[in-house]
């Protein structure tokens, strides 16, 4: 059996990561590779209910409560979707994961970064993605792409989103082996080619 792989897609709201994740899934399916797609917050079942609270609840939400909700959803995603699929030798593509919490709740909201990393480890049982792609784009462009209808997180303001972007770039510097930054201002096709190039450098298809 081929080895499973866990790949996460990260970046600002409107950076185009979801489109790129779907394109990579299509590419892999054409090569007859078994792919599982999931997302955080969300995934399925309970995760979708947590997502609903996180994105649409319109009462006050404390920053720590917000973090714990993302972390609870993460534990469920890892235990019920990611790990079982990777163990079966599948490639799991996940739209947002641990680095979103470091970037949004840590750099964005200003919570202690080391503490968030520790909580992430508890939520994932110390399991890290094999590869993380960060789609980097300037905040003005990403907010234009999101448009007027913004969810609770997207409405957090330009300064917040600038800090999130800087956060991602900082995290990528700290873990260059795992995290690759991609210029998300290029065309969808160009970005897709770069994603494939990075993916293929891991040699998963030739195993
Ligand atoms: P989503 O609609 O999935 O946004 P996108 O399509 O841009 O991925 O909404 C997820 C939102 O939740 C997004 O604004 C980022 C935020 N988020 C956090 O703040 N912390 C986290 O740990 C995660 C997973 C997401």
What tags apply to this protein structure?
207 residues, alpha/beta, Rossmann fold, 5-stranded parallel beta sheet, 8 helices, 54% helix, 14% strand, globular, binds thymidine-5'-diphosphate
Short note summarizing the structure:
The protein has 207 residues and is an alpha/beta fold. It has one domain: Rossmann fold, CATH 3.40.50.300.
How is the secondary structure organized here?
Blueprint: E1 5-11, H1 17-30, E2 35-39, H2 46-56, H3 63-87, E3 91-95, H4 98-108, H5 113-124, E4 131-136, H6 139-146, H7 158-174, E5 179-183, H8 188-200
Parallel strand pairs: 1-3, 1-4, 2-3, 4-5
Helix pairs in contact: 1-8, 2-3, 3-5, 4-5, 4-7
Structural overview:
This protein is an alpha/beta fold and 207 residues long. The chain has one domain (5-206): 3-Layer(aba) Sandwich (Rossmann fold). 54% of the residues lie in helices and 14% in strands. The protein is built from 8 helices and 5 strands; from the N terminus they run E-H-E-H-H-E-H-H-E-H-H-E-H. It has a 5-stranded parallel sheet with strand order 2-3-1-4-5, with helices on both faces. Thymidine-5'-diphosphate binds at residues 13, 18, 40-41, 55, 70, 95-96, 100-101, 104-105, 153-154.
